[in-house]
Amino acid sequence: MANLKSFIMFVSIALLVYTATNYYIYRRAVQAASAAGWAGVALRVVLLTAILAYPLGRALGGSWGVSKIFIWVGSFWFAAMSYSLLIVLLVDLIRFGDLLTGWLPSWVLGDRIQSGRMVFAVSAVMIGMLLLGGHIRSLYPVIHEVPITLDKLSPERGEYRIALFADTHLGELVGERRMSRIADQVNNLNVNLCLIVGDLVDESPKHLEWAVEPLKKLTAPDGVWAVTGNHEFYAGIEESTALMERAGIKLLRDSVVEIPGELSLIGLDDVTGSRQFQRSVKPISELVGAANRNLPTLLMHHSPLRLQEAERAGVDLMISGHTHRGQIWPFGYIAQAVYGVDAGLTQIDRMKFYLTTGAGTWGPPVRVGARPEIVVLVLKPNERKT
């Protein structure tokens, strides 16, 4: 009952914010364009269609072709809405400043209709270019090799290579071909171990049977391991677990496993999903205590939370995802402010921490300023201690 009330409250607030934001954008866009006749009607139809597309697509879930078109249109609108809001706020701020100071030149104020149309046209072209470029960029994750020195790594073994990715969000927008391409990229990296750091799925696994085959392609000598993200809980944790098992992926849920002679691997259930579904959160120290402390300890946790707890427990290396680095500029700054850490490698007292930007997208199928990535952690022994 508590979950249902929280869900209803969240949806109500989200719909209120979405409606208010889009009303503001719609009014300002129509005013700026000053389009009359059929042009004005067309503009209003396009805007209203874009605004209503995503909820309509989800409501028409049984009608596959139509719903998919609406979901794609609506998902792109999320990004367009974000940039439209920034532009409209900036224009209104400039207008308010002019009311106070009168600093705008006469050629701008002389023909307000023409000036408004120019702002509308330039904004529309700029947003369109951002969406196109951001979508193309989102389709092709880059490979980042990150060398990491660990004291406990055996010098006799040499380098140990780990491929990791997170946040694919398999579903309507990230489909079979994209997952197959990611699997091919991982398999070409010559790694010892493959790790999936949560949010592998975005929808109910009963709609994702197609995902089993591309996921089965993932191979590594020491296995393919994963942890839950918050979206595994939203999609159905039992069904998500079963999907990974069918794909040959080993899921670590508040548990530890030893990669013989290499490292102790700990996987935590995502704390966000756990708390929202009233599940207990296991102390990290308990898991570290059950690990082979003669080996480096690598902790996977989807959200970049519990970092200080992990460091105090003696974890050597922690990896997370979840933030997408905001996915579209400037939301990366907000993500960094909320979680207190930016994407990439960070030293947290005695523990090293890597936060990946993720390999897929959530919401808009667009990435601006936050390139998708597949990471290769190249673990090396500390030669000064050999």
Descriptive keywords:
alpha/beta, Purple Acid Phosphatase, chain A, domain 2, 6-stranded mixed sheet, 48% helix, 16% strand
CATH architecture of the largest domain: 4-Layer Sandwich
Number of alpha- plus pi-helical segments:
13
Order of helices and strands: HHHHHEEHEHEHHEEEHHEHEHEEE
Fraction of helical residues:
40-55%
Biggest β-sheet: strands ordered side by side in the sheet: 1-12-2-3-4-5
Assembly annotation = single chain
Number of strands: 12
Give the biggest sheet: 6 strands, mixed
What is the secondary structure topology, with strand pairs?
Elements (H helix, E strand, L loop, with lengths): L1 H32 L3 H23 L4 H38 L4 H5 L1 H27 L3 E9 L9 E6 L10 H12 L5 E5 L14 H5 L7 E4 L2 H6 L1 H10 L3 E2 L3 E5 L3 E5 L3 H6 L7 H6 L7 E4 L6 H7 L3 E4 L10 H9 L4 E5 L2 E5 L17 E9 L5
